[in-house]
Write a sequence for this structure.
């Protein structure tokens, strides 16, 4: 551990915590986190992970900042409209914490590139907004053995759970396959309260930090759902499905699948 | 207090709260359980807060000596 005085001051509130200390902060500094999607979930998570001092943050997103994003994607500011999201995000991360190494992937993840992008990271965070990506990310994380923090939001509700491949239920143990295209509305069609993205994205960041430091109890085999209108959390116990097509005993899915995206997302 | 072998010395008289404790904690992390750290600190807030925080984290204060306006604290590292 060789912190500079600047680092000791910057991270003093972490170092004071008995569960973190200098050793935990060093683990955070050594941590490599991949955030897929620099949108509603990825934005607040990236900001907090950067502030926390995560040493390497990868961000994958092929989109450009749109005016409609600004209501919730707080890493992007008004002058960023029209700029690639990964560049806008990288700039803000480095303003918060110049010590973070930011690696950008200005692309939509697909079956061809995702394993290559994931391979250097310790933890993956799903900040995407569509089922095709969520299944792809889950399958890739399981195949690559990377812990994955799933999150999803719509309207006034959100959900989160942590997947440790081989140890706990994966996304496919719970949701076997994507719903038919257009069966479930997207945020674009159904709307979303911006702050819900913050609520779930920040919980994902907390799960990432717990995994990196190795403290507490990860949200394994527990799906947490949140309803902002009722202000109620609900915890649903999950079990690893021995017949899961991707992480079960005899997996049927052994290569990655590019599912069809719903029409409105293709635009 | 003079018969305790000190394994490291840390002067935090130029620090203010919470850096007083943060620096002490980081120094203790470099020691093994049972080893001793001598901390030189100012009277007042550091002397009130640092020993309390150290005890909360399971360390033992095994000696205190006044030295003008400063104090020398001998801390035995806990688990």
């Amino acid at each position: 551990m060789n912190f500079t005085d600047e680092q000791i001051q910057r991270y003093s509130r972490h170092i004071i915590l008995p569960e973190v200390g200098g050793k935990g902060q060093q683990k955070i500094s050594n941590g490599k986190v991949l955030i897929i999607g620099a949108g509603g979930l990825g934005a607040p998570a990236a900001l907090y992970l950067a502030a926390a001092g995560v040493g390497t943050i990868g961000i994958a997103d092929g989109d450009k900042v749109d005016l409609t994003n600004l209501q919730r994607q707080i890493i992007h500011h008004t002058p960023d409209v029209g700029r690639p999201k990964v560049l806008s995000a990288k700039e803000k991360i480095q303003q918060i914490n110049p010590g973070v190494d930011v690696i950008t992937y200005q692309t939509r993840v697909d079956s061809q590139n995702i394993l290559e992008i994931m391979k250097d990271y310790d933890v993956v965070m799903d900040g995407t907004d569509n089922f095709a990506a969520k299944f792809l990310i889950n399958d890739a994380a399981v195949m690559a053995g990377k812990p994955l923090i799933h999150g999803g939001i719509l309207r006034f509700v959100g959900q989160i759970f942590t997947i440790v491949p081989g140890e706990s239920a994966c996304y496919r143990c719970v949701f076997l396959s994507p719903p038919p295209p257009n069966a479930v509305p997207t945020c674009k069609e159904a709307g979303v309260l911006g702050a819900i993205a913050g609520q779930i994205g920040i919980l994902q960041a907390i799960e990432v930090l717990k995994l990196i430091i190795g403290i507490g109890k990860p949200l394994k085999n527990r799906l947490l759902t949140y309803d902002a209108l009722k202000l109620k959390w609900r915890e649903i116990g999950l079990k690893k499905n021995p017949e899961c097509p991707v992480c079960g005993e005899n997996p049927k899915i052994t290569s990655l699948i590019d599912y069809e995206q719903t029409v409105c997302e293709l635009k | 207090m003079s018969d305790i072998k000190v394994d490291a010395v840390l002067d935090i008289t130029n620090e203010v709260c919470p850096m007083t404790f943060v620096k002490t904690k980081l120094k203790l992390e470099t020691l093994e359980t049972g080893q001793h750290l001598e901390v030189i600190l100012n009277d007042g807030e550091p002397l009130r807060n640092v020993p309390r925080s150290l005890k909360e984290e399971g360390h033992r204060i095994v000696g205190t000596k006044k030295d003008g306006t400063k104090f020398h604290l001998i801390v035995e590292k806990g688990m």
Summary: DSSP finds two helices and four strands in chain B. The interface with chain A takes residues 18-19, 21-23, 25-26, 29-30, 53, 56-57 of chain B (CB under 8 Å). Residues 45-56 of chain B form the longest helix (12 residues). Residues 2 and 54 of chain B are 21 Å apart (CA to CA).
